């Protein structure tokens, strides 16, 4: 991915991720927003490696027209909390397992989960599941927020959920008669 990935219309959701190495998981948030027709931008920004840029991004987000920020990071995952401290916009946090399951490196995402969810009172971060399910659900939650004031997004979200329900109910198991 480029460091600044834009959908065609002006973005209303900003996705920030702590490292380019996070993109294989975070792209599921972007794909879900795209499937719902929600304009977004995606950018690599780190609370630790690029703190000044993270500050500028979050503090100017509302004025630039963003309505929701999705922040994904692994390890000492402070990105979502830093964003939330700098903007009144809703911030949705995705904790990532940056270690591909090796306990010796990143604790399978438990480190990131606790770093993201344990915010001090006063600065909320809505925190989702570790990894891909969290990425998908953060995008769906962003859609639910936006759907409160946007009928097209509300319709797209209804359609997404109806399709998901149908897919589950129509699932065929190996050996089952058609
Ligand atoms: C975090 O450190 C990032 O969000 C990433 O999950 C983790 C490792 O980053 P890289 O060393 O792969 O760039 O800040």
Largest sheet: 6 strands, mixed
Order of helices and strands: EEHEHEHEHHEHH
Q: How many E strands?
A: 6
Helical percent range? 40-55%
The helix-and-strand class reads: alpha/beta
Low-confidence stretches: none
Total DSSP helices: 7
Spell out the blueprint of helices and strands.
Layout: E1 4-6, E2 13-17, H1 23-35, E3 40-44, H2 51-59, E4 68-74, H3 79-86, E5 91-96, H4 103-106, H5 110-117, E6 126-127, H6 132-147, H7 151-169
Parallel strand pairs: 2-3, 2-4, 4-5, 5-6
Antiparallel strand pairs: 1-3
Helix pairs in contact: 1-6, 2-3, 6-7
Bound molecules: 5-O-phosphono-beta-D-ribofuranose.
Write up this protein.
With 178 residues, the chain is of the alpha/beta class. It starts with a strand and ends in a 9-residue tail after the last helix. The mean pLDDT is 93. The chain is 43% helix and 16% strand. Helix 1 (23-35) packs parallel to helix 6 (132-147), helix 2 (51-59) crosses helix 3 (79-86) and helix 6 (132-147) crosses helix 7. It has seven helices and six strands; from the N terminus they run E-E-H-E-H-E-H-E-H-H-E-H-H. A six-stranded mixed beta sheet has the order 1-3-2-4-5-6, sandwiched between helices. The structure holds 5-O-phosphono-beta-D-ribofuranose (RP5). Residues 18-19, 21-22, 46, 73-75, 96, 98 line the site of 5-O-phosphono-beta-D-ribofuranose (RP5). The site of 5-O-phosphono-beta-D-ribofuranose has 10 residues, from strand 4.
């Amino acid at each position: 991915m480029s460091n600044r990935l834009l959908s065609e219309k002006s973005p209303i959701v900003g996705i920030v991720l702590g490292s380019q190495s996070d993109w294989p998981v975070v792209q599921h948030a972007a794909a879900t927003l795209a499937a719902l027709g929600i304009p977004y931008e995606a950018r690599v920004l780190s609370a630790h490696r690029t703190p000044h840029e993270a500050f500028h991004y979050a503090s100017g987000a509302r004025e630039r027209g963003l309505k929701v920020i999705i922040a994904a990071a692994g390890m000492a995952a402070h990105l979502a909390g830093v964003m939330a401290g700098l903007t009144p916009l809703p911030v949705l946090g995705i904790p990532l397992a940056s270690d591909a399951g090796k306990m010796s490196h990143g604790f399978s995402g438990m480190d990131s989960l606790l770093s993201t969810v344990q915010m001090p009172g006063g600065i909320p971060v809505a925190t989702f599941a570790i990894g891909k399910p969290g990425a998908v659900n953060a995008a769906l939650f962003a859609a639910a927020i936006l759907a409160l004031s946007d009928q097209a997004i509300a319709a797209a979200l209804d359609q997404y959920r109806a399709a998901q329900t149908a897919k589950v109910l129509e699932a065929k198991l190996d050996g089952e008669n058609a």
